[in-house]
Specification:
Elements: H1 3-15, E1 18-21, E2 35-39, E3 42-51, H2 55-67, H3 79-99, E4 102-109, H4 121-129, E5 132-133, E6 136-137, E7 147-148, E8 152-153, E9 169-176, E10 180-187, H5 197-200, E11 205-210, E12 217-219
Parallel strand pairs: 3-4, 4-9, 10-11
Antiparallel strand pairs: 1-2, 2-3, 5-8, 6-7, 9-10, 11-12
């Protein structure tokens, strides 16, 4: 068991949920999620992925250790989360489709970098809904100024109305200095089997949905949300 799995089990225990490890299938072609989580009689499947330091982060961590400060660094927004969605979707879909129930991707930042790192709210946003893009029109006549359009979430979307709909959402685990182990849950608005925010609750978990008017997340007020009926139910 790695630390991300241990933290998920601890977090579920704090929530009063039953978190059951699913044994791997003997058939390589039939990959299964890592866990079955039982919440008030409902089953939610979970695949757990751990984020470890990449080469650039290892370099910066070494610089911080040696001299107290590190060089500037960065990655494409959402790239890591996008890759984890791709890696986990097959096994999540397999059981979510079979049992007509929710399935989530659980992520934990174990890179050694402070804070949320590559699991920040913006990384999750752009991983799911596409890179933030600003259109710029360059006129042939240099005397005419550039025209800058409104930004939008463009290429490299992971979830759409016809893509990765068996992913109900992404849960990121975070060890807070003062509040202890907590989580952020990002709902997929296109999910076949969404997770009712009232089922998760507010204890040790902050929930988000994508804003209909801004390129950002917004906090969920559960009483105001009406989740669509599940397909085929």
């Amino acid at each position: 068991m790695n630390i991300s799995e241990e933290l998920l089990e601890n977090w579920c225990s704090q929530k009063g949920w039953e978190c059951i490890k699913i044994p791997p299938s003997p058939k390589e072609t039939e990959r299964t999620p890592d866990y079955s989580i039982k919440i008030d009689g409902m089953v939610v499947y979970a695949e757990v992925k751990e984020i470890v330091a990449n080469e650039e982060e290892i370099k910066v961590l070494g610089q911080l250790e040696e001299r107290g400060w590190g060089d500037a660094y960065g990655v494409e927004p959402g790239k890591t989360v996008r890759e984890k969605i791709k890696d986990s979707y097959g096994q999540l879909k397999r059981l979510a489709e079979r049992d007509k129930t929710s399935a989530i991707l659980v992520l934990y930042n174990n890179s050694g970098m402070a804070g949320l790192g590559r699991l920040s709210h913006y990384h999750v946003l752009t991983a799911m809904f596409g890179l933030q893009t600003v259109p710029i029109k360059v006129p042939c006549d240099s005397a005419i100024p550039l025209s800058v359009g409104s930004d939008f979430l463009g290429s490299k979307k992971s979830v759409t109305s016809n893509r990765n709909r068996y992913l109900s959402g992404i849960l990121t685990l975070y060890e807070h200095d003062q509040n202890g182990l907590m989580a952020f849950f990002y709902h997929n608005p296109y999910a076949h089997f969404p997770v009712d925010c009232r089922l998760i609750g507010n204890e040790r978990c902050i929930q988000y949905r994508v804003s209909p008017t801004k390129r950002n997340w917004e906090l969920i007020k559960c009483a105001e949300i009406e989740f669509p009926k599940r397909d085929g139910v």
